[in-house]
C-alpha cells in the first residue's frame, strides 16, 4: 500500500509538471503565507517537500527555519527596542487550520533596533505557534541541534509599507521574533491562564474568540538572541523575513502545551500533534548569523 501511494504521488507530481511545461501553465502561487492548500503530512502532494512546485519562493536559497550553530555566529551587539502602548491588546485568537493565531486589532506595539535596518519601525501583526508530532521536536528552529517543545512567532511588518500585505514580499518588509517554548509542570503563568480560559473555543477549525492579551509577557527574561536573513516558514515562503531567534526558552505548562497540540488542522481534521505544523529545517547556504551574546 505504501509503495502504491508513493507511485501515485510521483505520477501526480510528474503529470502536473508535464502539463505545465507543455501548455506553459504556471503552477499557482499564493500571495500570502496563510492561504489554503498546504499541509505538513509526509507523502502528501501538498506537503513541505512539494511546496516549491506551487510556491516558487519555497525553493529559494534563503529559506527558514535553520539550525543555528552558536560557534559559527558572529558577535554583533544589537539590542531590540520595544515601543509598547498599553498592557493588553485587542485582537482575534483563531484556529486557522494550520496554527493557533492571534491577530491584533490595535496598533502601537512596535520594535526597532533590527540589524540592517536599525532605524526602521516594525509593527506587530500577529503571533502564532508551531509544534511537532512529539514534545521533543516541536520547534522549527534549533540551536546547536537542540529543539524545544514548541515555538512562537511574533510577526512584525515595516511601518513604511502601512500594511502587512504590502510588506510581506519586501526585503526589509518583515521581522519575526522566534521564541522557544519549553513545557514544565509548574504553576500557571499569564499565558497558561489565557489558554486555559479560551483554548476550548479554538479546538475546531475556524474556532475563534475576540479577546485581549499582551504577547510581550511571553518574551524571555534575557535578550540573548540570534539574527539572520530568511523566509516565512509557510507558503508562499517569501524571503522577506529578518529573523530574531531568542536563545533561551520561555516556560509553559504541560496542560497548555497539550491544549494547543490538540487543535484540529485542515488535514482530515487531525490534531496538530499527528503530523505537527513545523517545516523541516532548510540549508543555511552559507548565510551569516549574528549573535548579541558572548
Describe the SSE topology.
Elements: H1 2-23, H2 51-54, E1 67-68, E2 74-75, E3 81-84, E4 89-95, E5 100-104, E6 109-112, E7 122-131, E8 142-143, E9 150-158, H3 164-167, E10 174-184, H4 190-198, E11 208-213, E12 225-230, E13 241-246, E14 250-253, H5 254-261, H6 272-275, E15 290-291
Parallel strand pairs: 1-8, 2-15, 10-13, 10-14
Antiparallel strand pairs: 3-6, 4-5, 4-11, 5-7, 6-7, 7-9, 9-10, 12-13, 12-15
EC number: 4.2.1.1
Catalytic activity: hydrogencarbonate + H(+) = CO2 + H2O
GO molecular function, one term: zinc ion binding
Characteristic key phrases:
single chain, 294 residues, alpha+beta, Carbonic Anhydrase II, 13-stranded mixed sheet, two-stranded parallel sheet, 6 helices, 15 strands, globular, disordered N terminus
Give a quick rundown of the structure:
The protein has 294 residues and is α+β, with helices and mostly antiparallel strands.
Structural description of this entry:
The chain is an alpha+beta fold and 294 residues long. It has a single domain (60-291), classed as Roll (Carbonic Anhydrase II). It is 17% helix and 27% strand. The chain has 6 helices and 15 strands. The strands form 2 sheets. Strands 2, 3, 4, 5, 6, 7, 9, 10, 11, 12, 13, 14 and 15 form a 13-stranded mixed β-sheet that branches. Strands 1-8 form a two-stranded parallel sheet. Strand 4 (89-95) and strand 5 form a beta hairpin. Helix 4 (190-198) packs across helix 5. The longest helix is centred in the N-terminal third of the chain and has 22 residues, at 2-23. The radius of gyration is 19 Å and the shape is globular. 39% of the residues are buried. Mean pLDDT is 86; it is low at 1-34. It catalyses: hydrogencarbonate + H(+) = CO2 + H2O. Residues 1-22 form the signal peptide. One of its GO terms (cellular component) is extracellular region. It holds the Pfam family Carb_anhydrase. Its EC number is 4.2.1.1.
Amino acid at each position: 500500500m505504501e509503495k502504491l501511494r508513493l507511485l501515485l504521488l510521483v505520477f501526480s507530481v510528474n503529470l502536473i509538471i508535464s502539463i505545465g511545461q507543455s501548455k506553459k501553465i504556471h503552477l499557482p502561487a499564493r500571495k500570502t503565507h496563510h492561504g489554503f492548500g498546504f499541509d505538513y503530512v509526509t507523502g502528501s502532494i501538498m506537503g513541505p517537500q512539494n511546496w516549491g512546485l506551487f510556491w516558487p519562493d519555497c525553493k529559494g536559497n534563503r529559506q527558514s527555519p535553520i539550525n543555528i550553530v552558536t560557534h559559527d555566529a558572529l558577535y554583533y551587539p544589537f539590542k531590540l527596542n520595544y515601543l509598547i502602548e498599553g498592557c493588553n491588546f485587542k485582537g482575534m485568537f483563531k484556529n486557522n487550520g494550520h496554527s493557533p493565531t492571534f491577530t491584533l486589532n490595535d496598533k502601537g506595539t512596535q520594535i526597532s533596533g533590527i540589524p540592517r535596518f536599525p532605524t526602521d519601525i516594525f509593527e506587530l501583526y500577529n503571533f502564532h505557534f508551531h509544534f511537532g508530532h512529539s514534545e521533543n521536536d516541536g520547534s522549527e528552529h534549533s540551536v546547536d541541534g537542540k529543539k524545544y517543545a514548541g515555538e512562537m512567532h511574533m510577526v512584525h511588518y515595516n511601518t513604511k509599507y502601512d500594511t502587512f500585505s504590502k510588506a510581506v514580499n519586501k526585503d526589509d518588509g518583515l521581522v519575526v521574533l522566534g521564541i522557544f517554548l519549553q513545557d514544565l509542570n509548574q504553576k500557571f503563568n499569564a499565558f497558561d491562564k489565557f489558554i486555559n480560559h479560551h483554548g476550548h473555543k479554538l479546538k475546531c477549525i475556524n474556532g475563534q474568540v475576540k479577546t485581549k492579551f499582551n504577547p510581550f509577557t511571553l518574551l524571555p527574561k534575557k535578550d540573548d538572541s540570534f539574527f539572520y536573513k530568511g523566509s516565512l516558514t509557510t507558503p508562499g515562503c517569501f524571503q522577506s523575513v529578518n529573523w530574531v531567534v531568542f536563545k533561551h526558552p520561555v516556560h509553559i505548562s504541560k496542560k497548555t502545551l497539550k491544549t494547543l497540540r490538540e487543535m484540529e488542522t485542515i488535514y482530515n481534521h487531525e490534531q496538530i500533534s499527528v503530523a505537527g505544523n513545523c517545516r523541516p529545517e532548510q540549508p543555511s547556504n552559507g548565510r551569516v548569523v549574528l549573535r548579541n551574546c558572548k
